[in-house]
Amino acid sequence: MPATLRLLSTLAVMGGMRDLCAAYQARGGCAVEADFAPTVALLDRLRGGEKADVAILTAAGIDDMIAAGVMRPGSRTDVARSFVGIAVKAGARKPDIGTVEAFKATLLAARSVCYSRIGASGLYFAALIERLGIAEAVNAKATIASTGFTAERLVSGEADLAVQQISELMVVPGIEVLGGLPKEVQTVAMFSAGLLAASEHPAEAADFARFLASKEAETVLRRTGLEPA
Predict the structure, then answer these.
(1) Fold identical between 4-81+189-228 and 83-185?
(2) What is the largest distance, in Å, between two alpha-carbon atoms of the chain?
(3) φ, ψ for residue 42, nearest 5 deg
């Protein structure tokens, strides 16, 4: 029976990874069964001994798993860079986020801003609004997403603005991405693949990781809001 790879992947690359898994199989690679969750949750699961063949996490997360012996030494493959963005509901007014001052004013004027406290983008945003001196005002009316995509709260009407990786925002229908954070306060996340030390399909896992970093994958990554590594 042909191998089926098990992939544990951060939500930040879900849109692109679904398409890439299908493209990999269509070009003759083995089937890939993907499970998506926030990086923090996946790290806990991997530390707990969950079995998989390949994982896509932040680069730092992959390095931690290699150091812990969960992943094969030297197996980190950088796949994509991601930027934090802001979205509104489709058809809503598009406020200015082009400068730091305009961005601050937009956050303060919003009825509610939705962000996550467990994803990399949400943790960064929480620290950013502290640095900008507006954390108390923003958090007083914030909608905190414990799971899923923050942009879903735009569609439901719970929030006016959603903050997350641009690639995560783009997964949700019925929203519009305003753009990335102002360049002075933007952050870049590197997402990487790593090969599980206990994988039962090491050769197939390595081939899949190479495909994710190939020229063939670049178009899909860009289309889904990511920059090829």
Answers:
(1) yes
(2) 59
(3) -65, -40
Q: What is the mean pLDDT of the chain?
A: 95
Per the CB < 8 A criterion, the answer to whether 80 and 228 are in contact is yes
> Tell me: the pLDDT tens digits for 195-216?
999 999 999 999 999 999 999 9
Does the pTM of the predicted model rise above 0.85? yes
Q: Which residues contact 29 (CB under 8 A, 6 or more apart)?
A: 204, 207, 208, 211
CA 45 to chain centre: 17
Dist. CA 122–CA 115, nearest whole Å: 5
Residue with tokens 């939705």: 114
Q: Which DSSP category does 71 fall into? A: B
Token readout for 176 is 């519009």
Output the DSSP codes for 13-64: GHHHHHHHHHHHHHTTPPEEEEEEE-HHHHHHHHHTT---SEEEEEHHHHHH
Burial code of 116-152, b = ≥16 C-beta within 10 A, e = fewer?
beebbbbebbbebbeebebbeebeeebbebeeebbbb
Instruction: Report the top-level CATH class of 4-81+189-228.
Output: alpha beta
**Residue pair 164/115 in contact by the 8 Å Cβ criterion:** yes
CATH 3.40.190.10 fits 83-185, yes or no: yes
- Which residues, at least 6 apart from 56, have a Cβ–Cβ distance to it below 8 Å? 7, 8, 9, 10, 13, 17, 79, 191, 192, 193, 194, 212
Domain-wise residue ranges, the chain? 4-81+189-228, 83-185
pLDDT band for position 147 (cuts 50, 70, 90): confident
